[in-house]
Amino acid sequence: MHAWLRAAFGAAFFGITGLSPAVAQDVTLRSLDGSIELDGSLIGFDGEFYRVDTIYGPLTVNAEGVACAGPGCPDLESFVAEARFAGASVIADRLMPALIEGFARARGMTVSRALAPDGRSVFTLTRSVDGTTAARFTLIPGTTDSGFEALLNRDADLALALREPSPVERDAARLADQGDLGLSQRARVLAIDGLVAVVSPENPLRDIALSDLARVFAGEITNWALLGGGDAPISLHLMRDDSGLAQGFANRVLLPARLGLGPGIIRHTTQADLAGAVARDPYAIGITSYAGLGNARALALGGPCGFNQAASAASLKAEDYPLTAPLFVYTPARRMPRLVREFLSFFESQAAERVIRRAGFVNQSILRTPVSGQGDRLANAIAAAGPEITLEDLQRLSARISDSQRLSPTFRFAPGTTDLDPQSRSSVSRLARAIEQGQFDGQRLIFVGFSDGAGDAATNLRLARGRAETARRAVMEAANAADLNRVQLRVDAFGEAMPMACDDTEWGRAVNRRVEVWLE
User: What angle do CA 461, 462, 463 make, to 5 degrees?
Assistant: First the structure.
């Protein structure tokens, strides 16, 4: 078999099948030396690869290696990359338009926007040099639910989501021949947000335990006096039940407490409406996003042990805040056109980070925090110390942290596993790119493992060190273009010695299981 045809078989085998829809027409693909021809019906073309139904089955062939003849052959010069994004309106309406415009500027293109009656927006990217159309991106605002549904039904190419897919959605994707939505390469983190409990600026409350927050929305706590406030009924505000925010709150706050929503909750269609209503009512409390605070004020979250954590850019980047919520884009189980793939890669650029920050979201740029800016971490370590954490342990911890800066990338794991969560996988990529760019040349990066307090201290210390080594290896493998002789990557561990949250709840233990990165 000719080499280019063997390559076509290989490409098809590895799943490079994502060509844009086209009317099936007869084509003949001829190798450039004319020695072999392949006849078939054109299924699609993505600007780089033909997808052809042949006597060998569907094959994917690189357009650079063949000449195309026949009525189905596309015009290679006038190919327009197209992609449809559907899902959470906060992403489709606020963030994606800004990212599209930023990407176009970086590529020397202009953008025009057309609004359709059904709420869709079509962005046309035009090359400034010759006025030709390079791409059309369609945004279909809705909910996370509708985004996954559109992806599975092939009504959209990419889903915009405020949560990970549910087991039901993952099963539906496999049944629809859409692959496994749970695979790490299917999800990209656009930006970082967080679920926050908000009150009016006139409300004296400053923090609330997650357990109390669950009981408030379950209708078990109905008066502010039970939370340390005045004698007044609590008014509840929440987004509509098909929104990612409402679903995230139910899954992450109510479900662990084995509670459901109580009666009398005022529902909102937009975060702006919710924040405005809460800000005007001193007896109201609502759940919105960090990016959607508006004039309302966010409460710090805490637990019975007294450790509180407020939502901030630093705590969200590091996932120290317990209700951190990444903004996802989920890709199809097929190859997208090159310009679409380049747009997805743009999300990790410095230009995109500026766009994300201006849009009100938290980007994933790397922060460096000296010990003086790390709040009560050492005080928490001392307060939580028990018989298994010795004075010598605390002294070693204090000595090491005092000479270091904490970097914002932090790696977290499921209980008893070394599986990184989606935001942590994104942090691997960010840190690896920074190492490749030489940002830490001549310095030492320490991957420092911590654990929760469940179990004995010695076992937790071993688990923490193992997770730190896992994170270090993941970053080294991702930084394959780096000269690792120019930076030292080391491992240390302190087990349960420095908790970030109360260890008597599952969410607190999840926050405490982490690998931090310290710069020396």
Answer: 90
